[in-house]
Structures are given as structure tokens and as C-alpha cells.
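REQUEST FORM: STRUCTURE PREDICTION
Request ID: SP-0412
Submitted by: Lab K.M.
Chain count: 1
Length (residues): 240
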Amino acid sequence: MPKIPGGAILAMDKSTGLYEVIKPSKANRAKFKKVGAPRYQKYPVTFDLSYTPPLTLEQRLELASYHQEERETLSLLSRLTLEQCTLEERLSDTPLPLIDRISDPPASSSPIHIPPPIPHTLKFHKSKLLTHIEELKPNLLATLIRLQPIFKRLNAEAERSHFGLPITVPQEMGIRLWNWYQRLEKLEEKLDTIGHTFTNAQWRRLSGSLKQIGRVSFVNLADRFSEVCKELDELDIKLP
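STATUS: Completed
RESULT:
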């Protein structure tokens, strides 16, 4: 076989079957320089080079709680799956004949407990009345707390009148004020019971009375005690 010089190519002519040594030009050598060379493949990075700081105590606790919830969920799912399989097995069983199903039930070892009849006095309250009670009960309690200094001093005035000492509020006015204050106390104590018997007009009257009392100013009560009592008396409070 002839020696092939550097840069030459041995090629066979198919028409004659003879081999020829072909020396390609410089341009062709540069063009076919990389023919047959292994192709470079760029593989993606499959690992993360970024730094991950360690978890804090709160993060570890949160992660542990999350895993605990996952375990409970899987446990519940497993139990429900078992129950589903049990029900499917029961449903797949052959049903009993009709004559067996309508026969007398077997005698029970324990006596049958028959519940008592529903009492005729059982009544269901209207939601509107319950709403009135829930709305006015806090206002009623707040009004009584606000009025306590007034009637505490009225009580002291009554003791002074009993011993013949001078008073700043007339006795008749004090009696009128005490009448509707004691009615307010009774309403606050038993509103859950007697409130269900009120009509819409009575609810409006109670709500309006609380608003009237709230408009009276108790500023500088020590010097304006008689004036405040007069303003309360002039309201002419009418409670249900």
C-alpha cells in the first residue's frame, strides 16, 4: 500500500476501482477539519451550590407540626379506606329474603327505653326577641353601673331625711327616681325570661329610655347632684 503524505486523503474511484491519493486544498481542510470529532454535550447541573442556613427552632417546630398533621391525615385516610372496604364487603353479601327481613326481631336482653312525650308547654322563642335581648342587655347593665353613684347618694339623702337633716333633693322626686331604677334592676336580672313577653312597642320604649338616660351629663356630679336628679326626673321614664 502506498505511503500517504500528511494532509492527503486516500479515496477509491468507484468507476475504475482504483485508489487515488487526493490532497485537499487549505480551504477544504479547514472546512472538514472537525468531521468525525466527538461532539461536546453540555449537561445541566443537578445539584444546588447555594448555601442553605440551618433551620431555627421555630421553623423546626413548625416543620414537626406539619409532619404530625401529615401523619394524622394519612392515618385517618387509612382508617376510612378500611371502613370503605368493610362496607363494600357487606354490600356485596347476598341480601336476606324478604320473609326473613319482615319476621319478628330477636328478643333484646335490655329493656327498650321509651322517651317521655314532648311537653305541651314547650315553646320556641323567636330569633327577633333573642336579638333584642342580646343587643339591649349590655346597654342595660352599663346604664345601671353609670347610675350607681346617683342612687347611692339618694340613699344617703333618705337617711338624712329620716333623722330630720336637710336634703338637696325633694323626697317625692327621689321616690320617682327609685321606682324606675328598681325596675331597671329587675329588667337586667330577668331580661332573658321576661323579655320574651315584650311587644315591639315595649322594646322600643326600653331602648328609648336607655338612650334618654345616656344623654344626661354626670360631669361634676358632686356640685350638680340636685340638677342631675332634676334632669333625670324630667325625663319621665316609662319602662315596660
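NOTES: The beta strands are 9-13, 18-22.
Reviewed by: T.R.
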